[in-house]
Amino acid sequence: MASAAAALAQMGQKKDEIYGYQTLYRELGYYITRREQYERALKYFDEALKKTPDDKRALMGRSIARAKAVQYEGAQDDINKALKMDPDDLVVLALKALNTYLSCDFEDALVQNLRNIPKRKKPDNFYMGVMHCNQAIENGIGERAGRPLRDHYKIIRKLAWKKVREAENPLKFTSKIKKKKKKKKNRDDMMLIFETNRDDMMLIFETLGFTKKKRRKLNPEDDTHYPCGEEPEGYELEIRESLRSHRAEDDDIPAGKPFPYRPLQRYTTNIENFMAEKYLKAMYLDKIFLKTLKDNPGVKSPNKAGYKEIVQLAKDGYKTLSYKQELLRTRRPFYFIKYQETSLSERLKKRQLEQKLKIRKATIREANALLDKIKWNIQKKNTRIALELAENLKAFCDTTPKKYLPDRDEYLSAVYTLVGQAYLDLKRLNLTQFEWDQRKRIYSMLGMTVSREPSQDSVFKQFKGVFIDWRKQIKIAENRLRKATSSLELTWLYHDLARYHSEIKQFELARVYARKCIVEAKECEDIAWIINAKMIITRINIQQHNRTDAKYEVNEAIELAKQLNDDSLVQYLEKTLSVVEVADFDDLLGTKVVEKREKQIIRMMKECGMKEEVAHLFRKMSVMPSSRRMSVMPGVRFTDDSKVKRSSRKMSIMPTTNKQSQESLHAIKPKGKEAKAKGLGFMDMIQFHVE
Predict the structure, then answer these.
(1) What domain range includes position 389?
(2) What's 36's DSSP letter?
(3) How far apart are the first and last CA of the chain?
């Protein structure tokens, strides 16, 4: 009874299993494997084998997932366990042969596939295994691999001699603890010994074949220094070896017979990336990224745990890619790839050359078409479209290899020059417009808002409604700046960075980039870019209420524009100078604008008593919070009228804030008998807001 009670208690404590757990985790693992999430699938297979260790299908599934995750040793262990359960299962035998091939044991895999072909011909797993193994073996040691040992004979001989030298003179590790040095003998005693045995030493030197040059170290009399040009006849100069002198390894290798063969791939400093591209294709970029990720300053952060996790993930990914590359290299050695490239048939070479020329012609045609479109849009003053096409041509040139676009640098230089001209074309006047509309263009260029933009102005119209994320554009430009090589490209990028930073009110940084743009433009002798940069600096000075520096920059731009013989540009800059001279910076401050408008309203009143009453009301309004204060700017809708006419809209060329221009409303004219009581409705409205 006691044992039965204990068994019942143990069963009560045992956790209830999920219904169908014998197959649930296994099938989940297979499903996730089909979704190519191998690391996640391995967890389910491990759980399935933990529940049912003798499940052959679970062992097969885990071996497949491990092989896909480049864990060939674990996959082989699972296959061996499954074979112990059923040694004649052909599916397991096919998996074993495949895993052996993936582990680069080609001979053993070939034997396994050949033994199992008579047992099963369809599906052709074993036939395909034989073909793969034969191909890998032929690629390594067959005729199709060429003569790699012969071609690399010099390198092999050099390595062999180096190994012999290292065996004869093994590396000795010296202790860091300095030993006590013995006292040197007196120099006079040494000279006495040398003089007494001089004749015997000379006889020994001549017998051993020592020349005067070689025994100079032992003969102190030969260490005489002679001035330059006064050496005696037969005197030889020598450079003695020192601790800093470098001896090439080839000096230790005896000269051999002339050998005409050499490796097909010569030594290059970029051989690592070159080989990675041959085997990993586009994934070699991922390998480079993972290798340099730990040194990327953007990865380091105060979150040490997260930083360590990112670095560990990068190490694991780099290790997996390197291992995969070595596996692919074992199947197709690098010397085999180079031999196949050099031994192509003449017909294939001709066809490849024709295809290359065809692609080159199509590429040049497309680049010329984009360049012509840019020029045409600049002539038609479609600046926004021209800038978009310039970005497209820049991306096209960057992604096109130079073998297909030999004149890539020339196209890029043309793009940079045309972009500078496109920005310069924005600085133009339309003489058919009114004076205030012409000034609005200049206000917009200087960053000063206007009350209402002209609806039909070509400069305003093509950039209207275009949203630009300035901070995102700054990041893109900074990344391109790190890769820039030519001065013209640096000029364009510095100009854009200055423009972007000025838009987000980072004026000091924008000024620095504009100055750099001027320096690079002077190196290229491109006046258009210099004028563009100076106008950005003018805009910055206006935003910072610095009239003197703004006038100085505009005057310099005028002198440069005269060198271009562009009268319209000179006219635009001269009008800009006049705008800068009369610009009222106080208009940019809200309180000054309100005070100025209040004075204008008071002057409009006819009766003296009404003026005093309005002035008193304005003084009472000035002490109220801005949120409760009535706006005295033009365009206010009167409360005693409901209808609004389009003709009553007020227009002004004076610069205003964005909020004021957006909140501008209509004002209407009183009719009939109300015209006699001019200004009374306005007074009632002010009184209502004050009280």
Answers:
(1) 348-425
(2) T
(3) 96
